[in-house]
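Could someone model adenosine-2'-5'-diphosphate with this protein?
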Amino acid sequence: TPVTETTAKAVPVLPDAQTVTSVKHYTDRLFAFRVSRPASLRFRSGEFVMIGLMGDPHPETGKQRPLLRAYSIASPSWDDELEFYSIKVPDGPLTSKLQHIKVGDQIILKPKPVGTLVHDALLPGTRLYLFSTGTGFAPFASLLREPETYENFDEIVMTHTCRDVDELTYGRELIENLKSDEMMIELLGEENLAKIRYYPTTTREQSPKMGRITTLIENGELFADLGVPALDPAVDRAMVCGSLAFNLDIKALMEKAGLNEGANSEPGEFVIEKAFVG
Ligand code: A2P
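Reply:
Sure, complex below.
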């Protein structure tokens, strides 16, 4: 007897759809979420992809277009899910919607990872500075969970500058978790994790360390606090991720110290990428 074929009813799904597996809100301006990872997606820790949602239907044609933005992947290359760390902009075309996603919802993810905040774009060195502001912490959340980061460097200085103390939580918790989670300790090694020097600063709310990191570099306070020599192109490397203005200011400081900007095609002493902003 012939087997009756079950007619699988086509469920409408988004193109390049991935499913949300967790969402955590940090402040009224910041949240992080995780989604399923396409089996075929390979990326290098520190890279970014385009993600988004379908936009509102066109008022006349009813046609919907995907609303996509560049987002750094905050999870490491070995993770079986993908993590993202995002700002919420009340009138932002994407983030005003994205901030409402729930577990089980779908987002669009274009599986074409790119970016310059990768080990391949840096020349060998001994001390790695990771300079971030706001959601610019995201690519470093990936790189801090990547074993290669610790194989390549003896010391990793992770700076994060935000307006308020609460905005540091995602980064602070991530680093605390690295040092206390047994799986992370086993993967990265206790001695390697001891290489991390976490340096959080705030600019508007009172905290133990205040000031823009650019100011703390210029006046030497960062180096005095860490007990390390001033920036030296022979040994120091840097990765930078923040707002456009921040990136430009840090770039000038790196170049003043004699560090040259690198790229995938030509590794250098520092690399820069703009954080997703709105
Ligand atoms: P500030 O409060 O002095 O503007 P934002 O939330 O606007 O993205 O800023 C994140 C953090 O980055 C804030 O602490 C902000 O300091 C700091 N910041 C903004 N622009 C620069 C810059 N050009 N150089 C250094 N830090 C900056």
